[in-house]
Amino acid sequence: PLYPATATVALQEDKSEVISDIESIMLGRPITKMGINTELEVLRSRDFVGQLVDKLDLVSQPVFNQNLRQQSLFSRLKTQLLRQFGATLKVQQSVPNSDQVRSNVISSVLDTISVSNIRNTLVIKISVTTTDAARSVLMANTLAELYIENQIQVKLEALASATEFLSSRTSELKQSFEDLKKEMVKFSDKSDIVSPVVLDAQKAQLRELRLRLAEAEEHLVGQKTKQASLRSLREAGDLESLINTANEFHLNRAISLYRKQLMSRADFEQKVGHFMLQIKAEEERQEEQFIALKESEAVLSDRIERQSQELIVHQQLERETEAARLLYESFFNRLQEMNVQLGLETADGRLLSKAIQTGASGPKKNQTLFLAGIIGLMMGAGLVLLRELRFTGFRTTNELRDNSGFGVLASVPLIPARNRRAVISYLKDKPNSLVSEAVRNLRTSILMSNVDKVPQVIMLTSSIPGEGKTILTFALAQNMVGLGKRVLLIEADIRRHVYTVDIDRRNTVALLDLLTDKIKHDDVSLFVEELGFSILTGTKSDINAADLFASERFSNLLTELRKEFDYILIDTSPVLSVPDARVIGAISDANIYIVEWNKTTRAQVHQGLEMLSSVGVGTTGLVLNQINTKKMKFYGYTAQYGYDAYGSEYYDS
């Protein structure tokens, strides 16, 4: 018997936080349908079941470790028999190692474990079914406890792994933060770093300086152009145009005095020369001022560019340092939280109810026997139905008559004889038996088949071998002897040469000897005392049987035999096997076609009858032979078999 034990485990979805900043490592993930299925697979996993095997030492229990089981009785008997006959057993000497044994035990234990989720709950049901009730309870409860312990252990391992990672990462971030601080200080010491405000002021100063430089350049260009024009006019001696172009107060006053002849020409030209010197000096002064402004602009621009780059680098270093500090502080704080949380882990599930011993769950004998009976009945009915659907033989004379189109002369039951020799004895000893009456009915049907001319030469054939043709021929011959007639039986089935009826053939005459003139018909007696009628036995010959029966010698022999005997029964070969029956049927008075009950197929009967008719051989009638009366009753055809159904009290058994 099998004893089941079940323990239940509930998964807790909502848990209180011990430290508000601790995340899913401690709390676990929200429990979903997928999560429950995952936990079911965890319970079915080989690693987890291996823990159960190790804890309960299931490797040492023969029920799970087949290497510890005793050899079965069949195996012991097989070994002893082989040793008695001198056979040597080639046994694999390799012994499985401990890992292989443990793996096999885990597989065996897995076959006894069933886990499932109770619908619309977070409860997992763990069932273990073994042949021992106490063992089932122990395994189910231990498995549930291991599952809860395993949840805590998994969290501990995850927490330890996270702590190790945070510790290592915190050290790295601390070192990175300190390196960035040192780099920023070093950069500040070697650089002329200004604040963004000072840098903006310098940029404003540079813009103003560039404006002044542009104005100075414009004045310088105008001064040079004016000086060149005045110089050209002085060299040309056009003092009037020079004074108009210069438009200078002193020159205008000098020219006015010169025109009034209040100033000599020499003084006037001296005034003009002095003015030209002033113009040149002013040009040189403006050019020096322009050069000075340009140099100042270049110096200021370079300083601003350098200080901008240094400020960018410094700001980047500040950001990196600040980021490193924040990361370091974050990891450091999380590490401290992890260290505080160690030891506060709880499982996501709790044991709701432990397994207890219950009655055996299987095998359910009554239910099993009932189902086996139903299944057996259905299978039997199905097989019977399938057999009936595939059945193509004949069970009643009506079926044979309707399907073949020929009349059925008789239906002959199976002769209840133990062996071949007992067939003749049975027919002699029980003349009023059911078989004898059936043969007598066949005799009557044959003799009445042609009222004008009673058949003298009667051929009996069948579709295939084994349909009881020879036995029926002997029975018919013996029955005809009861009419006080001279009867001859010719064994024309000389190809197969298998004696269906066992008689003493030492003093019999072979048909082949008469046909080959080895023996003269007038010199021998064909009568067999054992049978009560004459017989020509068949012997094997190298001559083709069809040619032999088609010869004139066989026809002449048959003519002579007609004069001597009242009835001649010819037992021929099956129609579908050889053409002998078609040859003999052409010279016979009546041709009887024998069909074995419940065996010969309809296609065989149709083909055999067609082969006879194809050569013009008519069929007098059919005989349904070797009927099993017990099976007839089983098939429900008792009413259709008249002898047994209505006249059993008239017959000897």
Question: Unreliable runs, pLDDT <50, ≥5 residues?
Answer: 14-22, 89-93
Record field, number of beta strands: 13
Radius of gyration using CA atoms only: 65 Å
Strand content range: 5-15%
- Count of runs of 4 or more consecutive helical residues: 22
CATH architecture of the largest domain: 3-Layer(aba) Sandwich
Largest sheet: 9 strands, mixed
The CATH topology of the largest domain is Rossmann fold
* Overall number of structural domains: 4
Structural class: alpha/beta
Please, what is the average pLDDT? 81
The outline comes out as elongated
Distance between the termini: 53 Å
Gist of the model:
The chain has 653 residues and is an alpha/beta fold. The protein folds into 4 domains: 3-165, no CATH class; 196-341; 363-390; 391-647, P-loop containing nucleotide triphosphate hydrolases (Rossmann fold, 3-Layer(aba) Sandwich), CATH 3.40.50.300.
